[in-house]
Amino acid sequence: MKAIWFEKFGAARDVLIAGDREKPVPGAGEVLVRLSSSGVNPSDVKKRAGSAPGLLEYGPVIPHSDGAGVIEEVGQGVSSKRLGERVWVYQAQHGRRFGTAAEYVALDARRAAFLPENTSFEVGACIGIPLMTAHRCVFADGPVKDRTLLVTGGAGRVGHYAVQWAARAGAKVIATASNETDAMSCLHAGASSTVNHREADWAAQVIATNGGRLIDRVIDVEFGANLPAVLDVINTSGTIVTYGSTIVTEPKLPFYRVMFKDLVVRMVIVYAMPEFAKQAAMEDIEKALRAEYLTHRIAHVLPLKESVRAHELIERGGFRGCVVIDTS
């Protein structure tokens, strides 16, 4: 099969290799998916660059956790009724070496979720990390109906879905955005209002936008950098849910201020989500896809041979939406 892999860490153009590899065989409890698309996420390019030093201990790595395609074979213990099923896959390259940057992937059948006919394989490749992360961020701490949520970076890949999940569930959503285009994206996704997080008084603007009231929950893309402002806007017994802290990688937590507000601080990463949360996300995602009430943004679709460019696009940023590789 055609595939992309790396045998050492480094820059994409220095280490990514394109060629032929042996087609995988599904083991017990696994399915073999003929992939049509592979999603490229920031975690994928970070691992290729060396963020997981032990990853290459047992051999080359085919990158990317997300993708979509059709089940072509099933392993022992998996119903043959799944043959021919359209699926989106996630965690393909988590805790193992073989991801979706290839024509085929064999993986745990639980990590291949049904993809409705009305949903393209390109969209399917964008679901795993961003959409499941957003679902967990919004719903991990109970219903959000009639609550007020602040989503920082509401135009980002996770933020875009978090705004939609929350608004759809009956929450009032305030989002932060750094420019007019992103602000309009947040409003179209369901936010009731936006503030510019690049302005020094953005926390005060959030409270003013909310009629002088504090926020029930915050979904935050930059925990360390945003924490001082978030603590200004969150209500007593509120919840801060975060899935990133790139700017300040080792934040200092003002313990007593957090404690006296009786706050919950939750960190979210798809790989460590409990199985019940993954199952709940998959069920809600299927309903949303069937009903077509979520909007999806695909910024780039590239052929497999341009995987280097795909990785470099993710690293460079400056766009909104998913980067998808056509593996068909």
Set down the secondary structure blueprint.
Elements: E1 2-6, H1 12-15, E2 16-20, E3 30-40, H2 42-49, E4 66-74, E5 86-89, E6 104-108, E7 112-114, H3 121-124, H4 127-139, E8 148-151, H5 157-168, E9 172-176, H6 180-189, E10 193-195, H7 202-209, E11 215-220, H8 223-233, E12 234-242, H9 255-260, E13 264-267, H10 275-291, E14 298-303, H11 307-316, E15 322-326
Parallel strand pairs: 8-9, 8-11, 9-10, 11-12, 12-13, 14-15
Antiparallel strand pairs: 1-2, 3-4, 3-6, 3-15, 4-5, 5-7
Helix pairs in contact: 4-5, 4-10, 7-8
Summary, kept brief:
Helix content is 31%, strand content 26%.
> Helix and strand succession?
EHEEHEEEEHHEHEHEHEHEHEHEHE
The biggest beta sheet is recorded as:
7 strands, mixed
The tally of domains stands at 2
What's the CATH C level of the largest domain?
A: Alpha Beta
Range of strand content: 25-35%
Mean pLDDT: 97
Shape: globular
**Might you state the CATH topology name of the largest domain?**
Quinone Oxidoreductase, Chain A, domain 1
Tell me the span between the first and last alpha carbons. 11 Å
CATH superfamily of the largest domain: Medium-chain alcohol dehydrogenases, catalytic domain
- Sequence stretches where pLDDT stays below 50 over 5 or more residues: none
Look at the helices and sheets and give the structural class.
Answer: alpha/beta
Q: How many β-strand runs? A: 15
The CATH architecture of the largest domain comes to Alpha-Beta Complex
Specify Rg, calculated over alpha carbons. 20 Å
Helical proportion? 25-40%
Q: If helices are DSSP runs of H or I spanning 4 or more residues, what is the number of helices?
A: 11
